Amino acid sequence: MPCHPLTDIPWNPARPRIALIGFMATGKSSVGQSLAASLGIPFRDLDREIVTAAGMSIPEIFSRQGEAGFRALETRLLQKLACGSDPLLLATGGGVPLRPENRCLLRQGFVVIELTAEPETVQRRVGEAQDRPLLTGRNNSAAIRRLMEERRPAYEEVRHLQVAVDGLRIDEICLRLRSRLAALPPASSLVKPESGD
Ligand code: S3P
Q1: How far is the C-alpha of 188 from the C-alpha of 109, rounded, in Å?
Q2: Which one of 44, 90, 134 would you pick to mutate in the ligand 1 pocket, going by the greatest count of ligand atoms within 8 A of its CB?
Q3: Distance of CA 93 from the midpoint of ligand 1 (Å)
Q4: Residue ranges per domain, the chain?
Q5: What is the CATH number of domain 19-184?
Q6: Residues with CB under 6 A from ligand 1
Q7: Which of 132, 150, 151 to mutate to test the pocket of ligand 1 (most atoms within 8 A of CB)?
């Protein structure tokens, strides 16, 4: 599938389609819900869609089908959600940008916003929770930093905008996101006029 260039942002203020990406526990779901409500558009959470489709929790999917089974389901559901044209705010799991086909799906269908956080912020938010198999038993800032570094190129390749969340409340993050979105040129203005000759 040909990938949309990053400069060609599919932004239509009248029909916003926004995907939030970012490392685990950067607040994609809570910020996504709040931003969707303030924009008056539907909100979907890809992890929740996966849990519903599989009929089991994420740790259960990882233990029964392995990470490969989880990633296959993730891509299948992303494909479904990415092909629509109705307004949508989609919160994605932290590993979604790792597959090249997912990056293409995100870029062609959504304005892609990365939420970033310091490893210490992630560590604090994850705490003792056991619902993220990739951090279970490895919730320390060195391991988080390593995984963030590994993932950085994939996130950079797909995002149109980036907002740091450390120390900010959800409403403050939403305000920042809304002003960044308001500054985007509508996609139609990026279309170059045909040359006359
Ligand atoms: C994952 C992130 C999780 C979830 C799964 C794998 C990852 O979602 O999809 O545990 O690979 O980063 P959150 O980013 O919402 O924690």
Answers
A1: 15
A2: 134
A3: 4
A4: 19-184
A5: 3.40.50.300
A6: 24-25, 28, 47, 58, 93-95, 132-134
A7: 132
Residue written as tokens 């996504």? 32
Print pLDDT tens along the chain (197 aa): 567 787 788 889 999 999 999 999 999 999 999 999 999 999 999 999 999 999 999 999 999 999 999 999 999 999 999 999 999 999 999 999 999 999 999 999 999 999 999 999 999 999 988 899 999 989 999 999 999 999 999 999 999 999 999 999 999 999 999 999 999 988 755 544 444 44
How remote is the CA of residue 38 from the centroid of ligand 1, in Å? Answer: 25
- Residues 147 and 164: their CA atoms lie apart, in Å, by 18
Residue 189 burial (CB < 10 Å; 0-12/13-18/19+)? Answer: exposed
Distance 192 CA to ligand 1 centre (A): 38
Handedness of CA 133, 136, 142, 143 (dihedral sign): negative
> Which residues are 88's β-sheet partners?
17
